[in-house]
Recover the amino acids of this structure.
């Protein structure tokens, strides 16, 4: 978890509400990833940034999810409106090319 | 599309045993493969990164092997300890332009004292 901070750590909302997550890398890495991890499954990639640009967002539900990366550093992921099936842990990760990826502690979202 | 399978899904062993976790993947054209550990309520911790040209990588009591042609990797844990209890995830990295990781569902390991 070293090098990647995420906030909040936990969030509970009702369906149809909006929510935002933040990722704050402590050390600079060019590539930033957002993953969704549903209970009992491995993480699934939502979006990948290279500096400020989007490399891949093919698995991002764009009708309700959006993400941006500011100045190639911090990033936010937003869900609007949330659905019950969005309950999951949202993980932010950093990497440099094909080297190791380092993950943050995640934000656990519960949608009621 | 890469698919990753990890067997067994759960494993419980007494302290001190040596054990092997298995990972198989359908697309052998990978760039490298990473093994992670995930403790309950936590993010992922990188354990080992093994390049496609390598056959083994070691770190302490952990040894990862890779047989790219057969689409298999194993994680060997020697002399298991209760502190090793966690979920272990493998993730091969593809060779496409995005070079993404694809995760298995993991093996939940419990080491009993």
């Amino acid at each position: 978890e070293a090098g990647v901070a995420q906030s909040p750590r936990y969030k509970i909302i009702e369906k149809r509400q909006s929510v935002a997550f933040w990722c704050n890398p402590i050390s600079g890495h060019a590539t930033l990833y957002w993953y969704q991890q549903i209970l009992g499954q491995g993480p699934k990639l939502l979006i990948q940034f290279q500096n400020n640009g989007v490399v891949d967002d093919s698995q991002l539900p764009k009708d309700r999810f959006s993400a941006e990366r500011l100045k190639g550093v911090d990033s936010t992921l937003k869900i609007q409106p949330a659905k019950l099936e969005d309950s999951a842990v949202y993980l932010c990760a950093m990497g440099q090319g094909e080297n190791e990826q380092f993950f943050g502690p995640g934000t656990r979202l519960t949608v009621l | 599309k890469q698919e990753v399978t990890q067997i067994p899904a759960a494993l419980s062993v007494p302290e001190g045993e040596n054990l092997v976790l298995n990972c198989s993947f359908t697309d052998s054209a990978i760039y490298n493969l990473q093994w992670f550990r995930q403790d309950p309520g936590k993010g992922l911790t990188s354990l080992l990164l093994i390049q496609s040209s390598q056959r083994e990588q070691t770190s302490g009591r952990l040894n990862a092997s890779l047989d790219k042609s057969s689409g298999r990797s194993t994680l060997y844990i020697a002399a298991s300890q209760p502190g090793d209890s966690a979920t272990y995830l493998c993730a091969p990295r593809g060779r496409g332009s995005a070079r993404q990781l694809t995760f298995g569902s993991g093996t939940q390991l419990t080491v009993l004292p």
